[in-house]
Amino acid sequence: MDYLGYLLIFFGAMAFLVSAVGLVRMPDVYTRMHVGTKTTTIGTLLVIFGIIFIEPSWAMKLILLAIFIFLTNPLSSSVVARAAHKDGAVLENDAFKEVSK
Questions:
Q1: How does pLDDT run across 16-75, given as a tens digit for each residue?
Q2: Residue 99 belongs to a domain
Q3: Would you say residue 93 lies in a domain?
Q4: Is 1 helix (H, G, I), strand (E, B) or coil?
Q5: Do 71 and 37 contact (CB within 8 A), yes or no?
Q6: Per-residue pLDDT for 94 more than 60?
Q7: Beta strands, E only, 1-101
Q8: DSSP secondary-structure letter at 92?
Q9: What local confidence, expressed as pLDDT, does residue 93 receive?
Q10: Is 97 within the bounds of a domain?
Q11: Is residue 100 a part of any domain in this protein?
């Protein structure tokens, strides 16, 4: 069971790495927000479930934490998108023009 926990923690860390690369590579606030919240949510949940496999006595507390993170990260993403929209942030759509041609 410990090895499965370590594997989940490793995949969670890889999700954090993907998130960091995505934050640097994405062109505007909306796509950065998407990468920043979705991959960190997945990474955090994988790390939490990995810790549950390693230390089962902490399972109830960690499951409650996972539920809290799963419910609040999308909410924070929406709040950031709304604030960016009200501030006048524009969607960098040059990449979308190339795809549609």
A1: 999 999 888 888 888 888 888 888 899 999 999 999 999 999 999 999 999 999 999 888
A2: no
A3: no
A4: coil
A5: no
A6: no
A7: none
A8: -
A9: 65
A10: no
A11: no
